[in-house]
Amino acid sequence: MTRVQPEVDSTRQMTRQMHGLGRGLMTVSRVEVIGPEMVRVALTGERAQSLPFPAWAAGDHVKFVVPNEAGELELPAPGEGAGPGPGGRPERGAAGGRPSLRDLIKGEVRDYTVRHVDREAGEVIVDGAVHEHGPVGRWFANARVGQRVGLMGPRGSKIFPSGYAHYVLVADETALPSMGRWLEQEGLSGRVTLISVSAATNPYPFPEPAGAEVEPHHLVLPLGAEVRGPALAEHLRVALSTSPTPDDVFVWAAGEANALRSVRALLKELDFPRHARHIEGYWREGVVAMDHHQQDPDD
C-alpha cells in the first residue's frame, strides 16, 4: 500500500536556480595529488570571479574541456550554437539547424564537479579521478602547472534542502568531490552518514564539519554494478533503518548509473518520499560521455 505524501514545505525539497551559460579558458596554477586515484587542480582566470557557486548545490558541475589529440582547445563564443533544449540541456544540433554547443567545442569534454571557488584567490578548484580509459582522466594523471583548460557552465544549480536532521550521502569515485562539497555546506548539522565505494582505500580527503556528527562507511570493491549495487543498497538500508530521525532523512546518491539502480529499487521498495531523495548517475560503465541528464525513470 502506497502511503499518502503530506504537503511538503518548500524548505524541505530541492529547488533549481538557473544561470547564464558562462565560459572561459583557465590556466592550471596548482596540481596536488590528494588520493591514490585523485588529483586536484587549481585554475585561474577571469571565470573564477563569475562562476556561480551557490550554497547547498553540491552537485554543480561544469563542462571541463582539455585539448584534443591535435592540441586544439577552443570554446564557442557567447551566442554561438543552438540554445537550450528540453530541461535546459544544450541541443545537439539538427539537420539544417544551428550546430550544437558541443559541436562547436574544440577539445575533449566531460562533466566535472566544481569543488570550490575562491574569489579572493581567483581560483576554481576541480578534483578529477585518474584513469587510463578516457582522455580527461589521462589529462588529470598528467596535469601540469601552466596547462590551459576550458570551463563552460554551470547552466543551473540544484539547491538541496538544508533543514534535515539526517543526511545519507552515497558516492563512488566520481562523486567523491561532490560528497566533499556537501560536507562544507554552512549550517550542516545533525547526523551525516557517508557511504562511499572505490577500488582504493582512503580515496579522498573529506573535510570535517564542525556542527555535524559524521558516520563514514567506505567500501573497497572492484568496478561492476553487480558487486557495488547490492552493497551500496544494503548499507543504505541499514542507515535508514537505524536512523535516530527516520522521518527526517534526506538521501543523496551519485555515481555509476547501473550500480545506482539497486539504490533506486530500495528507495522504491521502502516508498521513500520523492522530495527527500536525489539520485544521479554521473556515468555508465561502457558508455562514453553519458548524458547524465537522462536519468532512470524511477527517480
TrEMBL record:
Species this chain originates from? Galactobacter valiniphilus
- Cite the InterPro entries for this sequence: FAD-bd_FR_type, FNR_nucleotide-bd, Riboflavin_synthase-like_b-brl, SIP_FAD-bd, SIP_fam, SIP_rossman_dom
FAD-binding FR-type domain: residues covered: 21-161
> Region Disordered: what ranges?
73-100
Molecular function (GO) terms for this protein are:
oxidoreductase activity
CDD domains per record: siderophore_interacting (cd06193)
Under the heading Pfam families, the entry gives:
FAD_binding_9, SIP
Name under which the protein is recorded: Siderophore-interacting protein
Which positions, given as ranges, span the membrane?
none
